[in-house]
Amino acid sequence: xxxxxxxxxxxxxxxxxxxxxxxxxxxxxxxxxxxxxxxxxxxxxxxxxxxxxxxxxxxxxxxxxxxxxxxxxxxxxxxxxxxxxx
Length: 86
Description:
This protein starts with a helix and ends in a 5-residue tail after the last strand. It is elongated and about 35 Å long. The protein contains four helices and two strands. Helix 1 runs antiparallel to helix 2 (19-38), helix 1 runs parallel beside helix 3 and helix 2 (19-38) runs antiparallel to helix 3 (46-65). It has a two-stranded antiparallel sheet with strand order 1-2. It is mainly alpha-helical. The chain has one domain (3-81). Strand 1 (73-74) and strand 2 (80-81) form a beta hairpin.
């Protein structure tokens, strides 16, 4: 699975405005990350592994909170920054 595919699914989960769709999008992103990790033909850099760990943490928070604004905002590099009070 391409690096950009899990990132796109992750970004879609983080910016989802419909609370009823957030959990489904978060699960789809988690599945894509796991598929990328367990794909035996992929070489994953240390930086990408860190990005995936951060994304999984943010997705866990999304599933608990159910509000994209509680997690943060996506930066241009695809990372998530804190937004508001946590």
